[in-house]
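We emphasize that the prediction below concerns an isolated chain of 590 residues; any contacts that depend on oligomerization or on bound cofactors are therefore not represented. The input was used exactly as deposited, without trimming of termini.
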Amino acid sequence: PVAISDFCSKAVMDLQAVHKSLHWLFKAVCIQVVGGFAASEDVGYEGLFTTALDEFHHRCQDIQQPLPAWASGDFIIPSLGQFEMGGQHFVGFMDAFGKLHRFELKDKQVCATYRMMRTGFYNESLKAGTIGRGFLFHETDPPRDCPFGQAVCRVQNAMGPNDNTFVNTMRIGKHGVSLTDSPVGLEFDPKTLDIIGNYQWEDSLTSRKVPYTSSAHPLQHPATGELVDFVGIQNVLTGDATMRLYELKAETPKSRRSLVDIPDGIPPYMHSFGLTSRHVVLPHMPVKFDFTSVLLTGEMTKAFQEISITKTSPDNAFHVMSLAGDGQKFIRTLPASDRLYYTHTVNTYENESGIVIDLSTAPTNPFQRNLTLAFMMDKAARDGDKGARMVVRRFLLPFDGGDIAPVAHSELLSDPLMSTDFLTINPRSAGKKHCFFWSVQWFTDHSSMASMAVMKHELCGQSAERSSLSWSRKNWYPSEPTLLPSPEAGAPEDAGILVFTALDGAKRQTFLILLDAATMEVLSEAGPFPPIGFTTHGEFYAADASGSDSGAVEIPSLSDVVREVAETSGRGSAAAVAAAAAAAASAAAA
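Result of the prediction step, given as a C-alpha cell string:
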C-alpha cells in the first residue's frame, strides 16, 4: 500500500502540470486501490474520548538531547478530561469537563503537571454528584433531572456557571487565562494550573453593552507585539452586532484598550480572524449566532444558524477594517456557491495588490457537524463524514474595487483527500509572507480519519515544486504542534523546535514529542506519561514569562454577571434579562 500511495502521489504531481483539476480526480481513483489493500484498525483511538482523571504535579522525565536555553519554558495544552459523572454521560464530546496540562521544558528534562479544571460547572457537578446545570451542545444521557419542565431548566441553565472554557490559553503578564469563544475567560495559576475564577477586567470596554462572543484565538500585533482580540456586542433592540477590536498590554493586564469598532449587521460567529500591521480581517461565515434558538431548544448546537444566501452577500465575505482609526472598511465577497466555512487562520499579510489570508476551510458548517461521542467512536461513521475533510485555502483580498468587490483569487494549499487543521507558523512570520506552516493531518491514508500525522507544508515556489514532510507512527494520535523558533540572527523560517503531545493508542500512554521543525526528525521525546484525551490548542510560554502571583480561590457564579448586566442594561426590562442570559450562556459555546 505504501508503494502504491507513493506512485499515486508522483503521478498526481506529473498530471498537475497537464491539467489543473484532472490530477485530483486521478488521485481519488488511485487511492481507492490503495484503500482496498490497507485497512486501519485505529487501535486506541477511543482513548481520545475516554475519561482520564490522573492528576499530579511536576512528574519529570529525562530526554535524549539537552534543550537550548531559548526553548526553556512551559508548554500548556487543554484537553477533554471527564465524560461522565454520577451515572450521566455527556453526549457531545466538547461538553466534557476540561483539563489542563503543563510540560516544563528545561535542559535535559521535561516535567509534567496534570490538573482537572475546578470550574464552577465542575465544582457544582461534584457537589450534586451528577452533571450540573449549564448549557451543553447536547443534553446528557440520561437527561438531567428537570422536575419543573424544560422551560424552567433552560432558565436554570442560563443562570448556571457556564464556565467550562478550555479551548485555548493566553498569558497576560503573570496571569494565565483559559479561553473559548466567549467574552468570559477563566484565570488559572500558570504553575499549579489551579482555577482562580472568572478573569476580572478592570475597564469599561463593554460597559452598558451586551457582549455575546469573542475569539479563543487572540493574535499578536505584527508591529507592536501586543495581544489583539475582539468582543462581539449586540444591540438588544435592533439585533445588529458590532465587533470591537481591542489590545492588551502586559503592563496593564486587566485593562483592554479599544482599537476600532466594526459594524457587522447580523451577529456573526467567528472562531478566529486575521491581523496585519494595518488591517483586521473578519471572515464572515454564512452563519449567525442565534441565542434565541438555544433558549427554545436547550442545545448550544442550535446557536449556529445558517444564513440563506442565493447571491453574493456581506454574510459570506471578508470584512476588512483599517486600524488607523479612519473608518476605512471594505468587503470582499465570495460566490453564493462557495460558502466560507472555516475554523482557523494560518496567517494574514499584505502585498502590493491586497491582503492574503490563509484559512482551514470546510465543505459544510464545521460547528454543526456530528460532534457526539457515539459518532467519534463509530469508525464507519467518522470515516464516511463528508464534512470532516478540512482544506487550507489562500484568499487574495484586493485593495482596489471600492467598498464591495469579489475576492480576487483563491488557491488550495493542502491535499483535499486529507483533512488539515490545528495549524501553526513561525510566530516571527505573523503578519508577513510565510513560506511554511505545520498542521495536524487526518485521513493521511485517504480512508481513515484516525490515520494521523503532523505535517510540514512548504508554500514558496511553484505548486508542483512544493514539498511536505511529516511525523507519524501507526496508531499514535498527535495534538496540535507549536513552533519554538530559533532566535539566532538570520535563522531560516523553519529553524526551531516543534512540540506536541501524542497518544500511543496501543499502550494508552502519552508522550511529549520534540522535532526539528526543518527536517521533522525527532530530537527528543519524553514519556510515558498517563494518557491525555482529545486536545485543543497548545501554547508555549518562555521561561522568562513564567511565574504566578495569585492563588486559587472560590469560583464565583456567572449568575452574578447576569444580574450585573441586566441591571446596567435597564433594570427590570425583559430585553435586558434576555440579553444578560445570552451573555452568560455564550460562555458555553466552543
